[in-house]
Design a protein that fits this description.
Layout: E1 2-4, H1 9-13, H2 17-24, E2 25-26, E3 36-40, E4 46-50, E5 57-58, E6 74-80, E7 85-89, E8 92-96, E9 101-104, E10 111-115, E11 124-130, E12 138-140, E13 148-150, E14 159-165, E15 176-182, E16 188-189, E17 194-195, E18 199-206, E19 214-220, E20 223-229, E21 234-237, E22 244-247, E23 252-259, E24 268-269
Parallel strand pairs: 1-3
Antiparallel strand pairs: 2-21, 3-4, 4-11, 5-10, 6-9, 6-11, 7-8, 7-10, 9-12, 13-14, 14-15, 15-23, 16-22, 17-24, 18-21, 18-23, 19-20, 19-22
The structure holds 4-deoxy-L-threo-hex-5-ulosuronic acid and zinc ion.
Zinc ion (ZN) binds next to loops.
């Protein structure tokens, strides 16, 4: 498993394009029949992905965890952004259509991922955080995620937000997870921008056409940087960083967090006119 340590705002300020990408961008997440995991020391979030095509892929233990099995001291959230997939948790089977979410509680010993059809494989995005208590393994469809529409076409940010794992949804220790889909013609996400030093956040962009790119904004509000991203890539947003972006077309993205609280609304706004 790749390990990434944290960086301060001061260090980040001096980073080149290459250094920003090395430290914050997570590429090649969705490989065929191979689970990819990156351990970030920001809130000890593990971000990962797998596209099962011909095989069933096991969530195997990682030696860096020094545990008996992957979820011995952790919880896990999974959202499918591909064709219908199957997740088995200690013998219990869960079928996940596109945009369905499964929370797996601490203590689950055997978790594996497969696709219903080889020609339309599942694309599973995974996020895991340390956990101190067992909450039940729970599935939500996108309809159960209480979708809300926000933004406006006149500011190119009309979008629907689906919340799955949060204070009023699926219960967890510290993991919060959901996704946002932008309407045709809307390209800006998460405006007005914000920070929340109480939580780390990771964004994963999906349904971005091959020839299009996403300009992900990061940094402190008066020290902004950007990272140019492709479809199915993730980006780590340290607690001190803003996270918003603009695409050359519309797209969707999964947001996930861990830290002090699970309050979706706990954000410190960084109003657009104050940005530098
Ligand atoms: O802390 C919350 C997150 O940054 C996102 O949920 C924001 C988002 O999905 C949006 O405004 O579209
Ligand atoms: Zn946020």
């Amino acid at each position: 498993m790749e390990i990434r340590f944290g960086h301060s705002p001061q260090e980040t300020k001096a980073m080149s394009t290459e250094q920003l990408r090395e430290n914050y961008l997570v590429q090649d997440l969705m490989q065929a029949d191979k689970l990819t995991l990156v351990y970030s020391h920001y809130d000890r979030l593990i971000v990962g992905g797998v596209k099962p095509v011909g095989k069933t892929v096991l969530l195997k233990n990682e030696e860096e965890l020094k545990s008996d099995f992957f979820l011995q001291r952790r919880e896990l959230g999974v959202i499918n952004v591909g064709g219908r997939g199957l997740i088995t948790v200690d013998g219990e089977k869960y079928s996940l259509d596109k945009k369905d979410c499964l929370y797996v509680g601490r203590g689950a010993k055997k978790v594996n991922f497969s696709s219903s059809a080889k020609k339309d494989p599942a694309v599973f995005y995974i996020l895991s955080a340390p956990a101190h208590q067992v909450y039940p393994t729970t599935k939500y469809t996108k309809e159960q995620a209480a979708p809300v529409t926000l933004g406006d076409i006149t500011t190119s940010n009309k979008r629907t937000i689906y919340k799955y794992i949060h204070e009023e949804g699926i219960q967890s220790c510290q993991l919060v997870m959901g996704l946002t889909v932008l309407e045709t013609g809307s390209v800006w996400n998460s405006v007005p921008p914000h920070t929340h030093t109480r939580r780390t956040e990771i964004y994963f962009y999906f349904d971005l056409p091959e020839e299009q790119r996403l300009f992900h904004m990061m940094g402190e509000p008066q020290q902004t940087r950007h990272i140019i991203m492709k479809n199915n890539e993730a980006v780590i947003s340290p607690p001190w960083s803003m996270h918003f972006g603009c695409g050359t077309s519309n797209y969707g993205f999964i947001w996930g967090m861990a830290g002090e609280n699970k309050q979706y609304t706990d954000m410190d706004p960084a109003p657009v006119p104050t940005l530098l």
